[in-house]
Amino acid sequence: MKKSLKILVAALICVLSLQIDVFAKGKKESFENWEAVAMAMAVQFDGAIEDIQKDAYKDAYKHMNSAYFDYYEVQGFEKNVMAFISNDRVRHIEGTFSDIKHGLLGNVSVEKETLLKEVELLKVKVYRDAMVLDAVVGKSSDDFVGVKVYGDPSNIPSIVIEEAKAQGISIAALSEDVMLEEGDSSARNWQVFTIAFGLLLREGLEAILVVVAIVTYLIKTGNKHLCKAVYTGVWAAVGCSILVALALQFVISNAGLAGELIEGFTMFIAVIVLFHVSNWMLSKSEAEEWKEYIDGMVSESVDTNSKKTLVFAAFLAVFREGAELILFYKASFTSGMNNPKYIVYGIVCGALVLAIIWILFRYFTVKLPLKPFFYFTSILLFLMCISFMGKGVVELTEGNVIVGRTTIPAMHGFSFPLLSIYDRAETLIPQLMLVVATIAVFVNHHKSVKASRKKLSKESH
Description:
Elements: H1 3-23, H2 34-53, H3 57-73, H4 77-85, H5 87-105, H6 112-133, H7 158-166, H8 171-179, H9 185-220, H10 227-251, H11 256-283, H12 287-291, H13 297-300, H14 304-334, H15 340-364, H16 370-398, H17 425-460
Helix pairs in contact: 1-11, 2-3, 2-6, 3-5, 4-5, 4-6, 4-9, 5-6, 9-14, 9-15, 9-16, 10-14, 11-14, 11-16, 11-17, 16-17
């Protein structure tokens, strides 16, 4: 690992420690169910509404921040919605939060009535999602079933009734039906299993793809003895993830904004390291064909710095999501909202699926011929870079570091969550820049290969 990279990491740790001290103020609370979490958020929404009516926009902003970081993030609401409802739903809710906060800060021009309506509708949508997570209503239910947040139907604001009417929905019929329903415990247990399983699979898959690519590369090039160092990096990442999770949970009591910053910056570091590793692997792809050796220069090419870089890449791949995943599971076990038995079932099943994926990639990709393997590995890591870049931007946007959510109309709402590709300029522009850089690397590699072959051809004659 180069000195510059070490300095970058140290600097980020210092910055993040300051951010943690400044922003982490909330406390983890215990709730009976997700509707109780939504009600706690509703209190903050109501505070924001009162402040907006008094033109106290800065105070309203604080209430919106509290609703998001102290509850939606810390209590695991976001992750549950992402795993059981949809990633698009999380993007919509987070986008609404962001739009409201930018309006309150004056970054964009928004009328007071629009702000009031958006906060009221967000309160309804969040409560609807809580009802889905509590198995009170199904995933296909309309947003306006969330009017239960107001209790008595007579308390529903006219602004919400008018919006529902504009969409052809009868608030009266929805509120009467929903008030009588209760959560189905068996359905809830299935949701808990699905969420625990889905999150582990979702977060673990990317880490496995990176680690198995590095391990297989080392085996393929006769550097199997270095695999132990990579595995050490992986276990070190697990240990660091646990320590970071404990620090966030017990020392500062709130991952909140600090958690977003840690994940965002870690992803950007991962992009730099993986891009370097991918480019380095690609440069070895033609070694066999050019100079006809396997055990010679290719093996020797893994020098001390390269070894450290590979280990660090494996470390980042695991650490990147490890702390957040641990925090989520800890909250799930201790919140009282989930059945621990089904969380364990989900974790076990997720781990088994990841183990199968590891075996398939580990033992089948190693059988690929040298050149296709190197190309496959390089492309895989480049794709991981694109995904991490998009996620990093999203995390820093949620952490208020990157301002703005510029939708690209020409994309017509298209998104590809697997690679973190969304219809937003803030994520797409740096990803496109990364694609251009990747193309340049491949073109340069192709020219280098062509020149080397031409040189060898002349020498042979």
